[in-house]
């Protein structure tokens, strides 16, 4: 059992943990700064490797600084890929040898590694047609394609794939940032922010709030609602914790209609924006700009969600923390400006989508228990079945998606009174329009 006196603690034998001091030594030797109150460990619950505090860190403390000289790439996909490959090929002669040595990208499994087929029993089939079913392989397809970095050639070398995967899962727009990329993603518990060092070109990571000892240190892979939960799953293969931003359907009709989701005339006084940085509630367009033209729901908890969120609401994501009460209050303001005709359309679509799927939430909950048990048994027999693990991933995703769809319907029904009642007006206008047409 864990902690028994005869057992060597996991962190001493696991190179993904035990090599951290050597990595820190390298990082500091190369001019990087990292606070002593930070270590690496497996996050309780998820068991994902990530950064964890060893002592309390007050808000606004500089936790790390990555000098420009340690950042790899930052030019574009193709050049950065070539640089990473070249450095990896150099082995111990590369400045980044210790960085590559400590990398754990090969430990994560991405949807683009799934079998492409959607035959029964495949992970893709288990997505039941839900997004990202249509783009599980889009990054690799683009990369290999005529307009991508390989210009129509297939990637065959495992070393090329390793470089590609490191870049896809660890880089940000500035390139690959050693140490920074040991932080996991959490938009609810995000507790860091970055400051670019304009003069020297490096990057500092600071604590956003007080971080207690033994707590994971998080950043974000999706600022301000730019990537949905579906996008994150498609790229990284994990379903993010709350808040989740679910998107579905992308017809052109919705794109146009999305401009009319909110009541923005000045005879309505429901969206009181008290942010001193904003010009004023009616001047601040973000208050009334849809985050995306798709059907969309921002899920805060199993029972709280914002339907058809604005950019103002999704602006919180990745930029700060908001308590459940804080979310409740901004969502109440938001729902009061949201036209019920759009809520009805969203609710209808969520219901139709759910009804069109071959299994229900309750069935999926049983299926996933069974599939996880099967996977565990296979492991006990020493069998690593990648497809069985992919299938579990896909079912976990579709189950979370279905729960978001059901919550959308629940919120639309239970909070019916909260939305701006335009349904009758909209119906009358439509009828008048139809009569004119005749
Ligand atoms: C930039 S790395 C983060 C650090 C990484 N876990 C490590 O130990 O090196 C990105 C990868 O971490 C994992 N990851 C990050 N955030 C996660 C989360 N919230 N849930 C599950 N996996 C996550 C995914 O495998 C992702 O591809």
TrEMBL record:
The SET domain extends over 36-222
Biological-process GO terms, alphabetical: methylation
Which key words tag this protein in UniProt?
Methyltransferase, S-adenosyl-L-methionine, Signal, Transferase
Is Transferase among this UniProt entry's keywords?
yes
The record, for SUPFAM superfamilies, names: RuBisCo LSMT C-terminal, substrate-binding domain (SSF81822), SET domain (SSF82199)
A GO molecular function term, named singly, is: methyltransferase activity
**Name of the protein in its database record:** SET domain-containing protein
Q: Which organism is it from?
A: Stephanodiscus triporus
């Amino acid at each position: 059992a864990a902690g028994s006196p005869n057992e060597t603690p996991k962190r001493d034998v696991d190179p993904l943990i035990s090599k951290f001091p050597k990595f820190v030594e390298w990082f500091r030797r190369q001019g990087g700064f990292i606070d002593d109150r930070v270590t690496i460990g497996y996050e309780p619950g998820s068991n994902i490797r990530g950064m964890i505090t060893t002592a309390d860190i007050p808000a606004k403390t500089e936790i790390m600084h990555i000098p420009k000289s340690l950042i790899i790439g930052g030019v574009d996909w193709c050049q950065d890929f070539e640089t990473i490959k070249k450095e990896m090929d150099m082995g111990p002669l590369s400045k980044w040898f210790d960085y590559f040595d400590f990398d754990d990208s090969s430990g994560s499994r991405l949807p683009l590694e799934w079998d492409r087929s959607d035959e029964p029993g495949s992970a893709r089939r288990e997505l039941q047609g839900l997004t990202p079913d249509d783009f599980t392989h889009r990054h690799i397809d683009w990369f290999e394609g005529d307009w991508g970095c390989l210009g129509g050639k297939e990637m065959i070398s495992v070393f090329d794939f390793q470089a590609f995967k490191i870049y896809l899962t660890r880089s940000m727009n500035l390139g690959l940032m050693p140490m920074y990329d040991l932080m996991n993603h959490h938009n609810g518990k995000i507790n860091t922010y970055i400051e670019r060092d304009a003069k020297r070109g490096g990057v500092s990571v600071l604590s956003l709030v007080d971080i207690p000892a033994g707590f994971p240190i998080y950043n974000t892979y999706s600022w301000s609602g730019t990537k949905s939960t579906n996008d994150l799953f498609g790229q990284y293969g994990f379903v993010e914790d709350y808040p989740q931003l679910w998107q579905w359907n992308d017809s052109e009709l919705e794109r146009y209609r999305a401009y009319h989701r909110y009541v923005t005339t000045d005879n309505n006084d429901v969206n009181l924006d008290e942010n001193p940085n904003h010009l004023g509630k009616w001047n601040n367009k973000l208050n009334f700009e849809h985050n995306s033209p798709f059907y969309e729901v921002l899920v805060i908890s199993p029972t709280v969600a914002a339907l058809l969120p604005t950019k103002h609401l999704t602006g919180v994501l990745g930029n700060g923390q908001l308590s459940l009460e804080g979310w409740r209050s901004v969502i109440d303001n938001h729902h009061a400006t949201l036209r019920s005709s759009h809520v009805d359309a969203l609710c209808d679509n969520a219901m139709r989508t759910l009804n069109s799927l071959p299994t229900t939430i309750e069935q999926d909950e049983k299926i996933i228990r069974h599939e996880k048990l099967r996977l565990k048994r296979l492991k006990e027999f020493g069998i690593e079945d990648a497809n069985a693990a992919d299938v579990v991933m896909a079912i976990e995703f579709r189950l979370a998606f279905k729960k978001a769809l059901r919550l959308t319907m629940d919120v639309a029904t239970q909070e019916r009174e909260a939305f701006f009642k335009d349904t009758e007006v909209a119906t009358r206008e439509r009828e008048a329009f139809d009569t004119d047409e005749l």
